[in-house]
Design a protein that fits this description.
The chain is an alpha+beta fold. Helix content is about 25%, strand content about 35%. It has 2 domains: about 50 residues, no CATH class; about 180 residues, Alpha-Beta Complex (Nucleoside Triphosphate Pyrophosphohydrolase). The chain has 5 helices and 12 strands. The strands form 3 sheets. The chain has a 5-stranded mixed sheet with strand order 4-10-11-5-9, sandwiched between helices. Strand 1 and strand 2 form a beta hairpin. Helix 4 packs antiparallel against helix 5.
Length: about 240
């Protein structure tokens, strides 16, 4: 692939990631296409799913280091599975605001040994927000992250985060935070989805201090925000 084509692909990926480009009709009923063009070059990103029962909205991979630095053939994979909650009310979403970095994250975290997904979701939401999950509606997407592990360059950390739409009741108790969560000043708050996305995106663009997971959470906020603008919120509860 020549240099011009590579530069175009990089530019097109960045553009469609931020929602730029032209939305086109598609013969595939479960997708919406976002097209980016430059001269005779065209790039198409399939990112919007029409909602059908049990169909996920996204399933993506993120590489938090240069992919060329990740030696998958000779490295040990350290796997961590996690669950994260999407809690919606109209166009508002219950997020955890990190007072130290001013970024937003979805309530959730790692699944403990021998813990079921439902148990982990309920525990994490209760610990981080003080709210009770009363119903798990459906899994809406998966983000798989790869990065060099803290254990050294011969180890790759792989995090698989599953995102679930859930309902909560109106009760509220105190948070039960780990020490690092207290240091980051975790605070639950309702906010508009676009506000959370734009706040995180500005932190990334300005290269301000942030957590390793801001790229993942910002990507999911972006997908959900665009999908709700196109399709509304009702299908999240179907």
């Amino acid at each position: 692939m020549d240099k011009n084509a590579i530069e175009f692909l990089i530019k097109a990926k960045k553009a469609t990631y931020t929602g730029k480009g032209t939305q086109t009709d598609t013969s595939r009923p479960d997708l919406r296409d976002l097209q980016y063009s430059e001269g005779h070059l065209k790039y198409m990103e399939n990112i919007y799913y029409r909602n059908k029962k049990n169909m996920m909205l996204f399933n993506e991979e993120l590489y938090l280091n240069d992919i060329n630095l990740l030696d998958f053939n000779n490295s040990k994979i350290i796997l961590r599975n996690a669950v994260r909650a999407i809690i919606l009310r109209e166009n508002n979403i219950l997020m955890v605001l990190l007072g130290k970095t001013n970024e937003y994250k979805f309530p959730g975290g790692g699944i403990e040994e021998n813990e079921k997904i439902e148990e982990a979701l309920k525990r994490e939401v209760l610990e981080e927000t003080g709210r009770n999950v009363i119903k798990i509606i459906k899994k809406i997407g998966v983000i798989t992250e790869y990065r060099i592990a803290m254990e050294g360059k011969n180890n790759i950390f792989k995090m698989i985060s599953e995102y679930y739409v859930v309902n909560i009741d109106n009760s509220q108790i105190d948070q039960k935070l780990d020490n690092y969560e207290k240091e980051l000043l975790f605070k639950p708050c309702w906010t508009e989805i676009e506000t959370a996305y734009k706040t995180n995106k500005k932190i990334i663009d300005d290269k301000n201090d942030s957590t390793p997971w801001i790229m993942r959470e910002t990507r999911v906020l972006d997908i959900i925000n665009k999908d709700i603008k196109l399709n509304g919120v009702r299908h999240y509860f179907a």
